Amino acid sequence: MAHSRRLRALITNDDGIDSPGLHALADGARAAGFEVVIAAPHVDASGVGGSVLSIRDGNRTRVHSRELAGLPGVPAYAVEGHPAFIVHSAGRGWLDPEPDVVLSGINLGANLGHAVLHSGTVNAVLAGLMHGWRGLAVSLDLTDPAPENPHWDTVLHLLPEVLDVLLAAPDPAALSLNVPNLPIAEVGELREAGLSTFGTVQVRVDHRSGEHGEVLHSESAKMSTPLEPGRDAALLAAGHPTLTELVGVTDRPGVLDRVAPSRRAG
């Protein structure tokens, strides 16, 4: 993608405008030569997937201009809406000029396996595909609660190489980068990875009754099944940053061809 101007990057996330990971990603994108504009949810919106929900008053969704520490002169907006809503808004007339790429993260925790379906961070870049934009979702493998000093520097060390891959990809393309929370010297080589069947966390939901009425009680636990060799969860656990190209919603022809003609005729 050759341009005579600087490429414009929309920086977003699902952890909210005040997340240090968002600020680190914006700083890294600026250092890589992008023109940066930041637009992120005004509060934590983790786990919203591809939702385009916003807090509306009629046709209006509130936007709050912000000045972020360490990012002087960078336009930044706290939006009362979910990440995919923000990206779609950027492609429906809000941002002029439109972004060339969507960079989402740095997420507080890995986004692995087919569980990326639920990630607001990942679905922000998948929403960008609908507008013809390349996108990169970036996640750091943090425990809960997060450590006091995450290795943002490790992510930013890898970022230029991964951005080169993104810009060399067919347009549009959506990539997901997961980085182990390790010092740069201890990180393995960047590996392409397929999606694990699930992620690394399993959620059990029980229907319970008590003094507060009937509830669905959720409890998370590490997966008890072995990690699948060569897949994202296993490679990340072994200390490798992983890169996966994701495909957005598409169609598969031939649905009626799988049914015998006599059955289709009734």
From TrEMBL:
InterPro entries: SurE, SurE-like_Pase/nucleotidase, SurE-like_sf. Its EC number is 3.1.3.5. The keyword Protease does not apply. Residues 10-190 form the Survival protein SurE-like phosphatase/nucleotidase domain. It comes from the Bacteria. This is 5'-nucleotidase. Belongs to the SurE nucleotidase family. It comes from Pseudonocardia alaniniphila. Keywords: Cytoplasm, Hydrolase, Metal-binding, Nucleotide-binding. Gene3D superfamilies: Survival protein SurE-like phosphatase/nucleotidase. The keyword Repeat does not apply. It catalyses: a ribonucleoside 5'-phosphate + H2O = a ribonucleoside + phosphate.
